[in-house]
Specification:
The complex is a heterodimer of chains A (113) and B (114).
Chain A: E1 4-7, E2 10-14, E3 19-25, E4 30-38, E5 44-51, E6 56-59, E7 62-67, E8 72-77, E9 86-94, E10 101-103, E11 107-112
Parallel strand pairs in A: 2-11
Antiparallel strand pairs in A: 1-3, 3-8, 4-5, 4-9, 6-7, 7-8, 9-10, 9-11
Chain B: E1 5-7, E2 10-13, E3 19-24, E4 31-37, E5 44-50, E6 53-56, E7 65-68, E8 75-79, E9 88-95, E10 104-105, E11 109-113
The chains are: A mainly beta (113), B mainly beta (114).
Chain lengths: 113, 114
């Protein structure tokens, strides 16, 4: 049974700092991995999606990497801003590609001005 | 393109009452998902529809939860009777098809059971 874990559960950093969020999964047979952002009281916004054949994806100040063999992904945020404050969730879609996403519990990020 | 719509956005009920949530997916999306997100946890899939048929409802507490997707478009999720532990955000998502690359999420319905 696939399990997804995110560390740390919460993180507080000063503005301008570069930071890394971690995600690990127990079964390497995944179809893809996706990072989402969730603001309080809101739904999920997709940030980056990495197919199982890819090693990384970049969008602006965000870079996500995937190491399937070790069951790990990282989300790197460069030059953090107060507007980056939110909960970040990673989710994997298993290789059976039924469409089901299995989520980690999230990392709540606070960027202080 | 309009996104996934959900209503109501917030609902407060007492335990043992019933409640229903509504979801309208993105036009043309065949697959619809309902997730439950308890505070401090990631979303967990409750049920997945392909058009108006159920693909996966293995984690749906069928003694109290039910869902339908009439005509393969809108969907309703019902809880009857509600328990305290049902307090959560209920997220609806849709995708073009079952194996589509990406799911798109609605804003969610926050349920509080007192």
């Amino acid at each position: 049974k696939q399990e997804v874990t995110q560390i740390p559960a919460a993180l507080s950093v000063p503005e301008g700092e570069n930071l890394v969020l971690n995600c690990s999964f127990t079964d390497s047979a995944i179809y893809n991995l996706q990072w989402f952002r969730q603001d309080p009281g809101k739904g999920l916004t997709s940030l980056l999606l990495i197919q199982s054949s890819q090693r990384e994806q970049t969008s602006g100040r965000l870079n996500a990497s995937l190491d399937k063999s070790s069951g790990r992904s990282t989300l790197y945020i460069a030059a953090s801003q107060p507007g980056d404050s939110a909960t970040y969730l990673c989710a994997v879609k298993d290789s059976s590609n039924t469409g089901k996403l299995i989520f980690g519990q999230g990392t709540t990020l606070q960027v202080k001005p | 393109e309009a996104g996934v719509a959900q209503s109501p956005r917030y609902k407060i009920i007492e335990k043992r009452q019933s409640v229903a949530f509504w979801c309208n997916p993105i036009s043309g999306h065949a697959t619809l998902y309902w997730y439950q997100q308890i505070l401090g946890q990631g979303p967990k899939l409750l049920i997945q529809f392909q058009n108006n048929g159920v693909v996966d409802d293995s984690q749906l507490p069928k003694d109290r939860f039910s869902a339908e997707r009439l005509k393969g478009v809108d969907s309703t999720l019902k809880i009857q009777p509600a328990k305290l532990e049902d307090s959560a955000v209920y997220l609806c998502a849709s995708s073009l098809e079952r194996g589509a690359r990406e799911q798109f999420f609605g804003p969610g319905t926050r349920l509080t059971v007192l």
